[in-house]
Design a protein that fits this description.
heterodimer; A: 255 residues; alpha+beta; Ubiquitin-like (UB roll); Fumarate Reductase Iron-sulfur Protein, Chain B, domain 2; 2 domains; 5-stranded mixed sheet; two-stranded antiparallel sheet; 9 helices; B: 211 residues; mainly alpha; 3 helical TM bundles of succinate and fumarate reductases; 8 helices; elongated; binds protoporphyrin IX containing FE; binds iron/sulfur cluster; binds FE2/S2 (inorganic) cluster
């Protein structure tokens, strides 16, 4: 790396809108500091594009601190790039070398249609949540304190781990089948393990899986790629839990 | 998929044990083969279940693969799946279809002649022209051609790859994943996936070299 930083060639997916036929375009950026995040590097590119009267590259981002799940990007053949346990906003340019060529593509799945350039529509995740990713609680004013129910420590920990899923969609983007099982299983598990979640457990898993299939996600074949690429380390154990919840619920369902 | 997979895993184990007896004892192999080939429960009860099981597994496998390909309609320009998963876990359809092609040859070699002798010609005796059991001899004579032996051995390598993923995958599919037992299942799966196909290769090579 030179004193001034890295010179990089970027191959970026450009697509005007949802209907347009997109293609990969090549750009150059220079003097990229290794301390920048990947999104800051894209900010540099966009400033360069704006200053030369070109359309900046559209990409998703919000918190830029790894907690919201908004940033996406398939970087050099991996969701959120080559680092592990990070989102793209937490991916640093020190993971790359001077003169590297970096491929930047949107998350690809039929259920995640491209809106523009690198931005995809992940509202299919929201619809799965709406189908059952909640518990019904009486909020009349004398709501029971959640802590009044004793919960085994291990279950509480596992529910908490599942709840750390930020809904980024890296699991879908990575999976060769574009399956959403890791995401959905995290959202099922965070309740399945807790007493408050038991009441609606059967309907929840049946409805969420039904919505998942309706959205056009693929089927899980247990390659385990999602777990490796997930920025929050959501475990495959959740998928097994959802599979057994689903099997049990399908056997006893009445309609 | 998992259910038929489990069933096939059990089937493969018994198939291996019986075939292995052909290496140990001519007489023993003949006796077991005659029993398996003429027992009504096995022939009319279990054999059809096995056939349906294989066809179901095959049909579902192909259906799932087609559906899963459709779930990503635009491919990545740059993709590095090897960074997060094994080749055999991603290519079950390739190893599976290779096994299916092998089954075609395998049926041509053993199953069709057997069905022909027993149910079309109606000869249930299991004896050859000299009044001896024909099973071991017939098996032995199938492994004369080095090309056929080669195809058998290569197919078993694909079977090993299929099982390397399939064995543990089937447990996950039915919802069994446990901190203590899953590592054991994975080890057992690796042992099964390597030893059983290797054993089949040994049997094929044994008959070839002992001609
Ligand atoms: C007839 C040829 C075959 C084809 C086309 C085939 C195809 C497939 C496919 C596409 C899958 C699902 C992909 C996945 O889970 O990753 C699969 C899974 C599996 N196969 Fe096969 N296969 C064949 C033969 C066999 C045989 C002979 C065995 C065992 C002796 C076997 C055992 C398994 C197991 C255990 C699974 C895992 C099931 C699961 O994860 O739910 N297969 N096969
Ligand atoms: S399971 Fe992991 S990869 Fe998938 S949406 Fe949740 S945080 Fe993202
Ligand atoms: S922008 Fe919020 S996680 Fe990256």
């Amino acid at each position: 790396m030179s004193e001034l930083g890295m010179n990089l060639t970027l191959k970026i997916w450009r697509q005007k809108d949802a209907k347009a036929k997109g293609k990969m375009e090549t750009y150059k950026v220079t003097e990229i500091s290794e301390h920048m995040s990947f999104l800051e590097m894209l900010d540099v590119l966009n400033e360069q594009l704006i200053n030369t009267g070109q359309e900046p590259v559209a990409f998703d981002h919000d918190c830029r601190e790894g907690i919201c799940g908004m940033c996406s990007l398939y970087i050099n053949g991996e969701a959120h790039g080559p680092d592990r346990g990070v989102t793209t906003c937490q991916l640093h340019m020190r993971m790359f070398y001077n003169n590297d060529t970096i491929y930047i593509e949107p998350f690809r799945a039929k259920a995640f249609p491209v809106v523009k350039d690198l931005i995809v529509d992940r509202s299919s995740f929201d619809r799965i949540q709406h189908a059952g990713g909640f518990i019904s609680v009486n909020t009349s004013g004398n709501t029971q304190d959640a802590n009044s129910l004793p919960i085994p420590k291990l279950d509480a920990d596992k529910a908490f781990d599942a709840a750390t899923c930020i809904g980024c969609g890296a699991c879908v983007a990575t999976c060769k089948n574009a399956s959403a099982m890791l995401y959905v299983s995290a959202k099922v598990s965070q309740f399945a393990l807790l007493p408050q979640g038991k009441i609606e457990a059967k309907d929840r898993v049946l409805n969420m899986v039904e919505q998942m299939d309706k959205e056009g996600f693929g089927n899980c074949t247990n390659t385990g790629a999602c777990e490796v690429e997930c920025p929050k380390g959501i475990s495959l154990e959740n998928i097994a839990r959802m599979n057994s919840e689903y099997l049990k619920a399908s056997l006893v369902r009445e309609k | 998929m998992a259910l038929s997979g489990f069933f096939l895993l059990l089937f493969l184990l018994q198939h291996f044990v019986i075939n292995f007896s052909s290496v140990i004892s001519v007489e023993g192999f003949n006796k077991v083969s005659h029993f398996m080939g003429t027992n009504p429960i096995i022939q009319y009860g279990i054999q059809p279940i096995l056939l349906i099981g294989v066809l179901f597994h095959l049909g579902m496998g192909i259906y799932l693969d087609v559906a899963n390909r459709k779930a990503r309609n635009v491919k990545y320009a740059m993709n590095k799946p090897g960074e997060n998963s094994s080749w055999w876990s991603r290519n079950m359809i390739i190893t599976g279809i290779t096994i299916m092609l092998f089954l075609g040859l395998h049926f041509y070699d053993f199953w069709f002649p057997e069905i022909n002798t027993k149910f079309i010609l109606g000869d249930m005796s299991g004896l050859n022209g000299h009044g001896e059991f024909r099973y071991w001899e017939e098996l032995h004579h199938k492994f004369v051609d080095p090309i056929r032996v080669g195809i058998y051995c290569l197919s078993f390598v694909f079977l090993a790859l299929h099982l390397l993923h399939g064995f543990q995958s089937a447990f996950q599919s039915v919802g069994f994943n446990h901190t203590r037992y899953t590592p054991v299942i994975k080890k057992l799966g690796n042992i099964y996936a390597i030893c059983i196909p290797l054993g089949f290769i040994f049997i094929a090579v044994y008959h070839y070299v002992s001609q």
